[in-house]
Predict the structure.
Amino acid sequence: MATRRSRTPLPLQPDQVLELAAKYRSHSYRQLGRRLETFYRSYFERCLADRILTPEEKGTLLHLKTVLGLSDKVVNKIHNEVAEAVYRKTVDQAISDGRIDSEELAFLKSVQEELKLPNHVADRIYTEEATGLIARALSRAVSDRRLSPEEDQEIRAIARSLGAQMEFPEKTQTLLDRYRLYWLIENAELPLMKTDQKLLKNETCHFIVDSTWYEAQSQGKKPRPGGFVARSKIIRGDYHRSTEDVQRFATEGMKMQDVGVLLLTNRRLLFKGKKKGLIIRLKDMKDFHPFLNGVQFERKKGKNPFVAFDLGIDIFSLMLFRLLREA
């Protein structure tokens, strides 16, 4: 909880302050106006170091204003800016642990009244600081492009305690949902998909997508460089955020084998076409390379087929990456 700091003696006594002020006033105000305002601001900030203005300090500030020849407009501006800065710092200290209780709220109210801040100004500052703290906490939570249930719950707990609304633009919300899904794919049970494809004993299907199967005319077409970039981005969780440096796989010069459905199971990769099919056991897969328009599969032996599809390439790749490790 934020607390009032003990009062510390000012390095200058009021008489000394006024003596220096008179010295500055002997020069042209046009030349020293900014300096005099800064001098007044500095003294006012020191007075508010403990968030309290004593009657003596109020009297000294009034006298100092007169001696320095500062207008009401200038002084009010300085008072408002300094008071807001002090209150902002106080709020920041009070909510630094992501929680606030009734005692801390009462303390903030007393500081607001001492600083004579209007409610709308105090509310604005509190909202800005609370929103900023939540944003920073969320940024730390998704720094790995994953959002676990525990991290999600903690962010929501912070928002509830601070009385803040968790409202995000649609694009941000979509990205957060994606990061939640990434975490689930890597750590929870993979979702099961129903299929009429005959599966092996203890074989489960986890991904199904409409697709097109291509193969090179010659044996073992080498993976394209863009595939390595894409997979790296997917594993880091960056693929869905930016695909500027991820390439499309050029199917020119390759033979289209069939159009059908691609299935990913815990044991095999299956392509079920209208005329023929493709089966690759996960144990026989050397590597895989995602592109913007599909995935190329690198076998330990034989041709490296490319299967084109548009939806869920990042989801498919994360699932395959996990299943290959567990195979």
